[in-house]
Amino acid sequence: MSHPTWHCGKNGFFALRSRSMKSSQTVRHDIVNLLCDFLQVWIHQILYRRQLYPHGIFVLRKKYSVPVYMSNNPEVNQYIAQFVLTLRPMLEKGDCKSVSVVVTTATQRPLERFVLEIDSIIRTLDVPLDKLLASEATEPLADFEQYLRACLLKMAACDTILQRNPPHCRFWFSIEMTDEGPPSGQGTGPDVDWIPAEPDVSSDAFAWANLIPLKTIPMDLFKINTYVLEASKKGKQAALD
Length: 241
Hints:
Elements: E1 5-8, H1 28-49, E2 58-63, E3 66-71, H2 74-93, E4 96-104, E5 110-120, H3 129-134, H4 141-155, H5 158-161, E6 170-177, E7 194-196, H6 199-202, E8 210-219, E9 222-230, H7 235-240
Antiparallel strand pairs: 1-6, 1-7, 2-3, 4-5, 4-6, 5-9, 8-9
């Protein structure tokens, strides 16, 4: 059974703050923080490597001991942070099934869909959410960061695997919910605009030509699976359609 996907409109901005560690113990709240932090880095890498923004707005930094390219444009950064911030309550409750960055031509023809699939056990546990998030994780934070590091290294090779896109590509973010219906009472408000996504673009219903697996990441409450779906027509051929 397919599930609906939803876009986050660019109407306002938030900053995403993560709390600092006060001890060496890793609790599950820290795992959610780490996943949100990684989501931002993951999105920045896609925007840089698929040339969705000029390379001049990106600077080379290190994240999880891996060189990454991060935007230094405040508006772009706030847009990404806002999107991730709206996801956080859904991640905490296990309501988000996947997050995607969909790349299209200027005429909205789908070219690529970068997917971060989230298999969460939160909804299967008969434990109050606040107690669950305060409980100790199965591994220290540094171990989870190693998995994220491996995923970023695999993403760095995407340019050698994927075909070149035509110029002037566009993109949007979409999410797939575990249940039917739009996000309700979760990151919604006057600054967030959720609208139903086109199923033939934002889901597996579209006839994608290639599926390129990237990395599976075990993260305690979550199992993350990352991959790329690629259309058959790319480059100048897609731009002319």
